[in-house]
């Protein structure tokens, strides 16, 4: 049981966590914090949080669980604002989509990574953002990856694990470097490709007509290009090295396909498309099972 | 009213057209044709077609509307097999995703493009294929692009238009070259990118784990990579020039994003992501309106 949960950054991710924990009866009080009073008031009106503070030091005071749900670029500022204000029994975690970068930010802000800080990442979300889009079922049967360090308190890790399980998630642990490589492949690269495609098409001369003839496949393919640009700018900067590696890899492979088209090499195209379809169908079978 | 409709290639596209026209009472008899007796028998059992022929000459004999629904690479063979067997009042159309290539195939097979041939392309489909996946509502409010040539009979074009409208579609006409450029951008390039991404990830060392941590965004983004590989090989070969142009364009733009990440250029990333989100949100507003 969490007595006082502090959510810093009450949007889709933080708001849905608060809703899920309230529904599960897993926390007594939820304090929201953030920069926009308007947004925090909406969160109160929606029943997502009990009250809010705009001063981060005030917000974390007395909280036994602090979850930082701000864009990656804002993490270090938050850590600096709360250090020295945390209670003795606090557990601190975050939801950032890249972990190496957050760990470095914690190290810089606190001098060394605190043993009560458990880096985390829920693999959940939609292309929506904002507390209005939050809902308690967001984490149902979704993965949450924790990336504790050798020095992280096992007690703290256990409490973060319990929190996410109470919210309906399946929790796994992973090395932060490995997390960042896996997420670069499955999430960060696809977002980059989708943004890049829509931008390319939007800059064509006849872009209005182009979009007019786009069908359902295009709608699905580009859904993630409606995600929050600030969040994804921060992810690209924070997970730079792993993303660059994957982008290089992807451009190389795409150039092979381009050469196959140029050379009328139907067999090569068929081989790649067949392998991809087979991998994708296997993935869907697994993930829906 | 179509008296005898002949569908050559009874899969998702041809089967759904037959179902829609039967439901609308817009045709009296549907004859299916294709290479697989097993598939054609399923189509009879499902009530999609009345009867079938495996000899294409027999199949088109006496039909007043012939719709060719085979992969682009099989079009010319079909045209060769049916020429000389068509009735005097026939209208011939196709559903190929690239039009220039089909028109060339018709020219080679018939000596010149027949005035009763109306090249067409319904902008509809799912990642499923096969007659089992067909359903009468597939074309409801979807676009069908016809690309008649200057020499195409206006009467024939009118009858193909009527057919698609009876199936629920909105029919527009377009120059075939322009069609091929627009579809390269909105459909062919996205499919290539999705196939390429899944193939890239499937060939990573830890590919099982990679797919395990893929979330909903990945599932949507890669849905089109579950499409029929033969169909898409044929599209890449058939619309080669327009696709190559778009792939070049895309790789150039992606390299700009890669450089922005490499150079920690957050402003450039934010600009591109914001423009893409805005274009995509506009497109969705329009297409759902």
Tell me about this structure.
2 copies of one chain form a homodimer. In chain A, 53% of the residues lie in helices and 13% in strands. Chain A is an alpha/beta fold. The first copy, chain A, folds into 2 domains: 172 residues, Rossmann fold, CATH 3.40.50.720; 111 residues, Orthogonal Bundle (6-phosphogluconate dehydrogenase C-terminal fold), CATH 1.10.3660. In chain A, the strands form 2 sheets. The first copy, chain A, has a 6-stranded parallel sheet with strand order 3-2-1-4-5-6. In chain A, strands 7-8-9 form a 3-stranded mixed sheet, covered by helices on one side. In chain A, helix 6 links the parallel strand 8 and strand 9. The first copy, chain A, is globular, with a radius of gyration of 21 Å. The first copy, chain A, starts with a strand and ends with a helix. The mean pLDDT of chain A is 94. The interface between A and B is large, with 93 and 93 residues.
- Return the CATH topology of the largest domain in chain A: Rossmann fold
Oligomer: homodimer
Total count of strands of chain A: 9
Average per-residue pLDDT of chain A, rounded, comes to 94
Measured by DSSP, the beta-strand proportion of chain A falls in 5-15%
Question: Largest interface: which pair?
Answer: A-B, 93 and 93 residues
Query: How many domains is the backbone of chain A divided into?
Result: 2
* Run of helices and strands of chain A: EHEHEHEHEHEEEHEHHHHHH
Task: Trace the largest sheet of chain A across and list its strands.
Answer: 3-2-1-4-5-6
Largest sheet of chain A: 6 strands, parallel
């Amino acid at each position: 049981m969490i007595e006082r949960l502090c959510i810093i950054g009450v949007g889709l991710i933080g708001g849905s966590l608060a809703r899920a924990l309230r529904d599960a009866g897993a926390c007594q009080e939820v304090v929201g914090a953030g920069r926009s009073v308007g947004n925090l008031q909406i969160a109160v009106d929606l029943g997502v949080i009990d009250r809010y503070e705009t001063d981060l030091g005030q917000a974390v005071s007395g909280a036994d669980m602090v979850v930082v749900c701000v864009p990656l670029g804002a993490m270090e500022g938050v850590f600096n604002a709360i250090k020295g204000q945390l209670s003795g029994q606090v557990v601190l975690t975050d939801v950032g989509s890249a972990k190496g970068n957050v760990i470095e930010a914690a190290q810089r802000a606190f001098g060394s990574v605190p043993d009560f800080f458990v880096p985390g990442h829920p693999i959940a979300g939609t292309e929506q953002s904002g507390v209005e889009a939050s809902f308690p079922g967001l984490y149902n049967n979704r993965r949450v990856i924790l990336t504790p360090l050798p020095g992280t308190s096992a007690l703290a890790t256990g409490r973060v694990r319990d929190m996410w399980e109470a919210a309906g998630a399946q929790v796994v642990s992973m090395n932060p470097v490995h997390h960042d490589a896996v997420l670069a492949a499955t999430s960060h690269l696809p977002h980059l490709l989708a943004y890049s495609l829509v931008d390319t098409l939007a800059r064509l001369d006849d872009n209005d007509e182009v979009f007019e003839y786009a069908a359902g496949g295009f709608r699905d393919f580009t859904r993630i290009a409606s995600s929050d640009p600030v969040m994804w700018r921060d992810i690209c900067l924070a997970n730079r090295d792993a993303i660059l590696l994957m982008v290089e890899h992807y451009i190389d492979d795409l150039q092979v396909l381009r050469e196959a088209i140029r050379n009328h090499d139907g067999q090569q195209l068929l081989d790649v498309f067949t392998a991809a379809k087979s991998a994708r169908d296997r993935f869907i079978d697994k993930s829906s099972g």
